[in-house]
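Give me the fold.
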Amino acid sequence: MQKNPLVSIVTPTYNRSDFLPEAIESVLSQTYENLELIIVDDGSTDDTQALVESYQKDPRIRYFYQSNQGQSAARNRGIAESRGDFICFLDSDNAWVPHKLERSLLAFERFPEAQVVYGDNILIDENSVEIGRNNMRRHSGKITDRLLNDNFVSMNTTMTRRQCFDEMGGFNEADRIAEDYELWLRFSTKFEFRYIPELLGFYREMENQISSDKQQRFEGNERLLLKFLEQYPDAVAAKRRRRGLSHFYTRKARYEISVKAFGAALSDIAKAMKYDPWWQGPWRALAKMVLRR
């Protein structure tokens, strides 16, 4: 890795001028300074442009406006405009810890075979008050089979070598839900990931987020997961494919049981059993549903 490489940060935004300053300031306060912050305004109607202009005394900030096309299109615009050797993503309602870039680059030095590094998040509310720590189980190496279970790659903590986008493209602009999941699944078929067991970012949870609608998120994940397996049939062995799908439908059923959607839960338990009847997961979910009812 070259000494002191340029890091590009892509921040898509749409009517988030209330939270955007926190995101910008968390970039400008990084301990690693050779960076560019590319803000792609996806058709905001608030005072986002004026807000960004107030920060543009720092030449590292670059601003682009486009008509509203969705987050994936905005991120792809940012990738296209970027000049760095590494690319990071920071949503406009989230933020980073000051050493996020420094720790990510150190991981690339320690693990030169990695093409994507990522870590953990601190969960915050609308007032930036900590409400938890996102320490779900994460994995390193060739992670496709693990990703079938769940998307554990926290996008706002990632740093990715530019060559990944050059070789495999960016986000699928047809996806409006879980678009990062599709990207990591696709990248995992070719590239190695490295998990950094450190808190690198702040992830804001709000009621009006698409990602806060768990049922909608599960449905979006299901569509892209099945499409991915259709497009990359050799990405994982058949046995692991069946186990991964069984894990997914069991996890979906457990959520449906928690909200008392028992009909949907039973349907998903049946799917989980069909894929892997010898795994105990769906049978335990069935027992939980019976007891819950």
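The CA atoms of residues 38 and 62 lie 5 Å apart.
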